[in-house]
Design a protein that fits this description.
This protein is α+β, with helices and mostly antiparallel strands. The protein has one domain. The chain is built from nine helices and six strands, in the order E-E-E-E-H-H-H-H-H-H-H-H-E-E-H. The chain starts with a strand and ends in an 8-residue tail after the last helix.
Length: about 300
């Protein structure tokens, strides 16, 4: 099997495509488990080239976020060209940050002894918090280079991010990865390549919370600023533009970071932990620990009083 990596897009070539689907034998207590839909992780096979759902999720997510960002950019006094030119920066930030985040946060001992494996992204291993850090760094450098108001630009990214988060979590579910803790609830599932225990489909919880719920929150914020989201398509956007730019830059970024941090922190209780971190008498999952800085930064930008129109 040979692998070719495009930006966040995994393609494999094989002489034949075989996906073993070995399910554990079911005992009487789990006969009524909600069956896991055995979806082939390969979406399309063209000859010896296989296109994976996970790669498609990233590709579609970035494309939809790109189009959404271009639609609302004028309301923040950001040009569509600024959005177009940022896409490459964003993709690099997601890939490099996401991979390094996984290496440093989740499995450092393995990569310390096998550094060549860092480049093997086709074997999985991308961390959201690392990808977020990568995009933040890319955004800071891009805005500085182009003399773009940083927090206005960041607010646009905050509004469009739930689209990619939703599709990414659905792809996690299709790949049967990042599943939840054991459960006896009627919608518990036995995931392929797991221990045969009923588990929460936590990827779907995260898709709903991080994608749909936060997406609705951000949409409500836009509507509260703009008055009506349909006015985005209006040719007379000047009053709207003045209204939005008068809104404190960075507050939407803060709302996104706070919302994601709180939702992810809570959902970690039903997600199979990637590791633990002890803080005095408290024990947190690694995901929860990484959410605390997000929550803190979100509160800061929501409550910050010193924004100005050029930020």
């Amino acid at each position: 099997m040979h692998y070719f990596i495009l930006p966040n897009f995994l393609i494999t070539t094989t002489t034949s495509t075989i996906m073993p689907t070995i399910m554990p034998s079911l005992s009487l207590p789990v006969l009524f488990a909600l069956p896991f839909p055995l979806i082939n992780p390969v979406a399309v096979t063209l000859g010896s080239i296989s296109i994976h759902w996970y790669g498609l999720a990233y590709l579609v997510g970035i494309s939809l976020a790109w189009g959404y960002a271009r639609a609302i950019a004028p309301l923040f006094s950001i040009t569509k060209k600024d959005i177009d030119d940022f896409i490459t920066w964003a993709v690099v930030g997601i890939i490099v940050g996401g991979r390094l985040g996984y290496v440093l946060f989740y499995n450092p001992s393995h990569f310390l002894h096998h550094p060549a494996d860092i480049l093997k992204t086709w074997e999985g291993g991308m961390a959201f918090h690392g990808g977020l850090a990568g995009v933040i760094v890319a955004t800071i450098f891009y805005c500085y280079k182009r003399n773009i108001p940083l927090m206005r630009f960041s607010d646009i990214l905050a509004i469009v991010s739930p689209t990619g988060l939703f599709l990414g979590r659905v792809a996690n579910f299709v790949n049967a990865e990042h599943y939840g803790t054991p459960t006896d609830l009627p919608w518990g599932m036995i995931f392929p390549r797991s221990d045969g225990v009923l588990r929460h489909p936590s990827q779907l919880y995260e898709a709903f919370g991080e994608g749909i719920v936060i997406g609705i929150i951000m949409l409500i914020c836009v509507r509260s600023i703009a008055g009506s989201f349909t006015a985005l398509r209006s040719k007379s956007a000047s009053p709207l533009n003045r209204h939005v730019t008068a809104f404190l830059p960075g507050r939407l970024t803060g709302i996104f970071m706070l919302s994601y941090g709180v939702i992810r922190f809570l959902l970690e209780y039903v997600r199979h932990p990637d590791g633990f971190l002890s803080l005095g008498n408290f024990t947190l999952t690694l995901g929860q620990a990484l959410c605390i800085p997000m929550i803190s930064m979100g509160l800061y930008w929501i409550m910050h009083k010193h924004h100005n129109a050029t930020e």
